[in-house]
Amino acid sequence: MTSVDSAPVTSASGSDIRVRFCPSPTGTPHVGLIRTALFNWAYAKHTGGKLIFRVEDTDAERDSEESYEMILDALRWLGLHWDEGVDAGGEHGPYRQSQRGEIYEEVIQKLKDAGYLYESFATAEEIEARNVANGRDPRQGYDNFERDLTEEEREALKAEGRQPSLRLRVPDADLSFDDLVRGEITFKAGSFPDFVVVRPNGKPLYTLVNPVDDALMGITHVLRGEDLLSSTPRQIALYHALIAVGVADFVPRFGHLPYVMGEGNKKLSKRDPESNLFHHRDRGFLPEGLLNYLALLGWSIAPDRDVFTMDEMVEKFDVEDVNPNPARFDVKKAEAINGEHMRQIDAEEFPNRLVPYLQAAELVSTPVTDEQLATIRAASPLVQERMQLLGEAPGLLGFLFTETEALDYAADALKTLKAGAGETLTASYEALEALEDWATEPIEAALRAKLIDELGLKPRLAFGPARVALSGQRISPPLFESMELLGKDATLARVARLRDRIENEGA
RNA sequence: GGCCCCAUCGUCUAGUGGCCUAGGACACUGGCCUUUCACGCCGGCAACACGGGUUCGAAUCCCGUUGGGGUCACCA
Question: Boundaries of each Glutamyl/glutaminyl-tRNA synthetase class Ib catalytic domain copy (predicted)?
């Protein structure tokens, strides 16, 4: 057996760096998982190395094809491209573990032949009972008691009908490694017992396939969640065995990324909607905005700046700068960052981003008509700088795609109508009806002349009723521009409609 | 409980021994701008967990305490 300290650690430091993203397809993509993907991606791009995308689908119970599709959808939506792996090909495939059975069998055989693996018959219940019987904490785990079972003892157990799992014989020595985000970490001998790598049915476990694939795929830097930190010494022990039997050439470097936390002080739960990437997409986050925010969870680009593009991140990102503290997912800040990106989107492009959200609300058709698109384009400049999420578009622009007769008045909008609102609308109607040049400037001039100068109203009171009449909302795009967009007929009809309603129902 | 990780404003962070009476951002808040809401601008509130060292000097280094988290699966 190789000594613990003698195995070579990778020396990759530039374009020879190979990182990987290897999710298990269970459930919907979690923002913490995406943050891990982002850091791996950024590190590969920054160093000129390669990102390998592998799928760890060895748990038939929980994995699903649907979940696998969602992960692909997520990475593509975000623009996190990989160089090698599922759907991209490469010389180390296949990249789905469910298709690598034969490879594992071969490795298991080598490890067995070299004496690194031994048969273990104890069940979880028996291990716990054994701890109790020996006066130890039941949570202590396996005590390696089957390491030196004799041939006769093993045969006897098998004769009872028991099928053994296979455990790796872990070196009885302290084990240290230099974590890329946390520095030197040492685990004391005995704190990482022999662990199961192959089920009794012969199927390998994550504890085996993850390092084996990393080794076979030449992964040099393993950047993953902090939850895997305590399994690192065992993995390194496995690496030593893999090197000894010629499967691996070196031990990779490890970097353990901090948790993404939720409310309270708990890891953001998969059950929390905020953990669901698609929940944020549905609400109207931009890929660039969400990615920017996620990058801030454990990393910062500069002391006085937190809005940046992915190109800028790639230029600056180094995993050694990642902060080891767990970070709380703050949706308010995420929205603010997203708002910054909304304003940075090219004005020509912005309307296109709105379309899917207006379609989801069934305000425009799919595909969108030329006329609808023209309206969206015209309205875009009015809303671009007042939105934080694309999902606000239906609320803000819905009135442009609603027939006057179908327009609903929001309760909080009606509440803003004070006494005299009816008269104000009548005056507005008169001023507008006489107008020939239907454009923002003249509309504003006419209304100001009538309502402010002539009637002496305060602007808020003068224009509030018309805003409700047009949009049905308390909050809307700028009024005069909205009138121009809506056209004279519809504007007059809406002003009259609300006025009539006030007169008939007392508002 | 054993092992391991973490510890700066409410939140995300900058800070790698003197530039720190601790900087930025979000949130909150006062004001300006203003046809609503935003945007923008100006201002405010607010932190080095605690205790020992080391040092001329510590948020920064060391030790301890406390607190939080993770892990100890034939799940990944």
Answer: 17-333
Q: Cis peptide leading into A94, omega within 30 of 0?
A: yes
| Positive/negative CA dihedral, A295, A300, A302, A303 | positive
Q: Does any strand B atom come closer than 7 Å to the Cβ of A478?
A: yes
* DSSP symbol at A10: P
pLDDT digits (tens, 9 = 90+) for A264-283: 778 899 889 999 999 999 99
Residues 6+ apart with CB under 8 A from A486: A399, A400, A470, A494
Cα radius of gyration rounded to whole Å, chain A: 32
Say how far A100 CA is from B66 C1', in Å: 49
Residues present in chain A in total: 507
Architecture (CATH level 2) of domain A411-506: Orthogonal Bundle (1.10)
Domain A349-400, what architecture? Orthogonal Bundle (1.10)
DSSP A144-169: -TTTT--HHHHHHHHHTT---EEEE-
Residue nearest to nucleotide B35 (CA to C1'): A463
pLDDT at A5: 52
pLDDT score at A184: 93
Query: Average pLDDT, stretch A78-91?
Result: 96
Q: Does the domain formed by A98-257 have CATH 3.90.800.10?
A: yes
Q: Is A270 annotated as a binding residue?
A: yes
pLDDT for A1 beyond 50: no
Q: CATH number for A273-343: choose from 3.40.50.720, 2.60.300.12, 1.10.1160.10, 1.10.10.200.
A: 1.10.1160.10
| Residue linked to tokens 């302290």 | A174
Q: Which nucleotides of B are covered by protein (CB under 7 A)?
A: 1-8, 10-15, 23-27, 34-40, 68-76
Torsion of CA A334, A338, A339, A345, to 10 degrees: 170
- pTM for the model: 0.95
Distance between CA A118 and CA A147 in Å, rounded? 7
Q: Which of A270, A415, A418, A458 is catalytic?
A: A270
Residues 363-392 of A with CB under 7 A from strand B: 385-387
- What is the domain partition of chain A in residue ranges? 98-257, 273-343, 349-400, 411-506
Strands A183-187 and A175-179: antiparallel
Residue with CA nearest to B8's C1' atom: A325
pLDDT in tens, A143-200: 999 999 999 999 999 999 999 999 999 999 999 999 999 999 999 998 999 999 999 9
Say whether A270 is catalytic: yes
Query: How far: A38 CA to B12 C1' (Å)?
Result: 17
